[in-house]
Model the fold of this input.
Amino acid sequence: MKIGQLFNLDSAELLKASSKQSGFADAYAGTVLARNLTFISPTIFEKKYPDLTFVNSGIQADNTGGYARRIGSLRVLEQGGFTTSGDNSDNKGRISLSMEDSYLKVLIREAESKWTEDEVKEAELQGVNIVAKYLEATNKVYLREVDEIGYNGIDGKQGLLNYTGFASGGATGLFSALTAIQMYDDVKDAINAQWGAVFNTEGYMADQCVMPVQVMNLLRATMLNTAGSTDSVLIALQKNFPTVSFFSSARCLTDMVLFASSGEAMIMRIPQPLMYGEVLKTGSFSYQNESKYRIAGLDVLEDTAGYVLTDVWA
Done:
C-alpha cells in the first residue's frame, strides 16, 4: 500500500507545525516526517514487519468515501450477444448490463496520547525522544489494526481469511502428515484451479499465497526429492510459479489462501487514512495528541480472484 493511502500527510505537516508552536525543538517537530515514516517509501514498505503481511501483500487501498457511514461498490457484468445479419426480421441480438451492488460499514477508530514536560525532559537525558516514541507507537498500532481487519474483517466478517465468496477445496491431508510431493501437488492444484476459474485472465490470476507460519516452515525445510535434490517444496513452487509470492501470517491458522492483489480483484477501503491531531497544551506542563482513522475493510470485487485450500494445518 502506498504511504499516502495509509497516512494523512497533510495532518502530519500540521502536527509538525503544532509541535514547534508547543515549544518543542526542531528535533521533536520533525518527528513524524523525518523519523516515524522513514521506513515507508513512496510506493511500498522498505521494512517488512512479520505481523503486517497483509499491508505488504500488494493490495491497494482506496480512500474514497470520506465521512460516509457505509461504502458502496458496484459490479457490472455484460450479458447477451449479436445475431447473424442478412434477414429482415427485427429479432436482433441484445446486449445488456447486469449490476450488483454491495455495502461495507465504516468503522471509526480514535486514540489519544498524553505526556508531560517532565517526561520529555527525563527521556531527553537518556537520549530518548518520548514524543517520537508516542507517535511511533500510534503508527505501529494503526498498521497492526489495518492488517488485522484486512485478514479477519470487521466483526469477524469479510476479511481475506474468512470471505465466503471464494471457491475452496480441501487438502489431501494435514501438511504435517503428507509427503513432499503431496504437499507440492496440493498447492500446485490449488493455483491451477484458481487460474483456470478465471481463464488465466491477467488481474484476476492469483499472485499471492498466504499460509500458516508452520506450513511455510514445513515447505521451506522439506526437500521435494530426497535423492540428492537441493530444492525444497517451497523453492520448487517458486520456480514453477514465479508470478506468485508465497508468505505466511500468524493470523492464518488452518487454511491457505490464494488471491489476486490487483485493483480489479479487490481493494482495501480506508475512506480516511490515519490523521494526526495537533499537539495541544492541556495544562501548564502537560500535552496531548489525538489521532483517528475510518476503515471499511476488504472489498472483494471479483469472487473468482481468490481460492482457499482448507485444512492444511490444525
Observations:
- Residues 26-35, 38-47 have pLDDT under 50 and may be disordered.
- The first strand starts at residue 61 and ends at 62.
